[in-house]
Design a protein that fits this description.
Layout: E1 11-17, H1 24-34, E2 39-44, H2 51-58, E3 61-64, H3 70-80, E4 85-88, H4 98-109, E5 114-119, H5 131-146, E6 158-161, H6 162-165, H7 177-188, E7 192-197, H8 212-230, H9 232-261, H10 267-306, H11 324-352
Parallel strand pairs: 1-2, 1-4, 2-3, 5-7
Antiparallel strand pairs: 4-6, 5-6
Helix pairs in contact: 1-2, 1-4, 4-11, 5-8, 7-8, 8-9, 9-10
């Protein structure tokens, strides 16, 4: 994809892999043909087959990550590799390498920090029984909790700017890492875009590493933890309302009896209801206090994110103008490429509609 839009930018293709020996060779070759200027990295996550060997033969730089889980691999990749643009995909062959060039162009032309390749039809056919329902359910839950910024929070095909990668904390350990990326972008209000792409199936003999219930439970837990960390007032308010409802259930019959007879015969029930009431008040107060703490942390994360140079812009627009020549060259050469790509994308979206 040698064009003026990404000229002089370092591009890294990141492929986290676990037992993908059957497909990784063709995937690496596909990305080398589609994006010849990119450096391709395969991070082998304790594969028991020949994934690492086939990736190396195909021309990728192979690194081993011993801690099991996609989240650990992504955290290592983001920490190790320094580039201007990062393109992350899976090594199972379900994502077309030629679509990666379009993701990169969209990242540059839209001035985004992350572009998600949403999987066309994934909520109706996820390639495995139970996954379609899970995708639809979790995407609806995400929009309810964190807003309507994404339609496919589990897509593993994404392009990132350097400022996103180097400001992303990456605390997840498994397949919930994509959910954490989406929450990070939503909370910091980072500019993102989505590009609908075809999603293929694994070739015969290649097995999925996903567990419908196991990974679903971990993702649900991650959503709860991320809500606690980023929206503590809402999180603890919901808990407070639940405990308050339980308190009222125990309290009501005792109060009814008291108003009828003037006696409190079920003292343990009354004590329990009062304890639950105090707990509800404490949870609400904790939510208010932690909300202020979370706002401070969010401001710090936003400031850290802003310390990185935006993708494609001049390195600095200082008052001294030491990069004025570079900025002028950027202004002369880039708009035509940006306009060309934006118009083609608008036409494509219009034809789909």
């Amino acid at each position: 994809m040698s064009d003026g839009l990404v000229q002089d930018l370092q591009i890294a293709v990141l492929l986290p892999c676990y037992n993908e020996g059957q497909t990784i060779g063709s995937v690496v070759k596909g990305f080398r043909e589609a994006i010849p200027e990119a450096q391709i990295y395969v991070y082998d996550n304790n594969s028991s087959d020949d994934t690492a060997l086939k990736a190396a033969i195909a021309g990728a730089t192979v690194v081993r990550e011993p801690r099991q889980g996609k989240g650990h691999v992504v955290r290592r990749m983001f920490a190790d590799i320094d580039a201007d643009i990062y393109l992350m995909a899976d090594g199972d062959g379900t994502y077309a390498p030629e679509d990666g060039a379009e993701l990169i162009r969209t990242l540059k032309s839209e001035r985004c920090d992350m572009v998600v390749g949403t999987r066309r039809g994934v909520t109706s056919d996820a390639g495995r029984r139970g996954h379609a329902f899970g995708n639809s359910l979790f995407n609806r839950l995400y929009r309810l909790l964190f807003g309507r910024g994404f339609t496919d929070i589990f897509s593993g095909y994404r392009a990132f700017s350097r400022r996103f990668v180097k400001s992303f904390p990456a605390v997840s350990g498994g397949f919930e890492i994509e959910t954490e990326m989406s929450v990070h972008a939503s909370m910091l209000k980072i500019p993102v875009a989505e590009l609908e792409l075809d999603y293929g199936r694994r070739p015969e003999g290649s097995e999925s590493k996903l567990s419908t219930f196991g990974d679903g439970g971990r993702i649900l837990w991650m959503l709860a933890m991320l809500m606690k960390e980023t929206r503590p007032f809402s999180f603890f308010s919901y808990l407070s309302l639940g405990v308050l409802a339980a308190s009222m259930i125990f309290m009501t019959p005792v109060l009814v009896e008291y108003f009828e007879t003037g006696l409190v015969r079920r003292m343990p029930t009354w004590v329990l209801s009062m304890a639950l009431l105090m707990m509800a008040l404490m949870l609400f107060a904790a939510g208010m206090i932690l909300d202020s703490v979370a706002r401070g942390r969010m401001e710090q994360k936003r400031l850290h994110y802003m310390t990185f140079t935006p993708l494609g812009g001049p390195r600095a627009l200082s008052s001294a103008g030491e990069h004025a020549g570079e900025a002028g060259q950027f202004a002369e050469t880039e708009p035509a490429e940006l306009a060309k790509h934006t118009v083609s994308r608008l036409k494509r979206n219009k034809s789909k509609a």
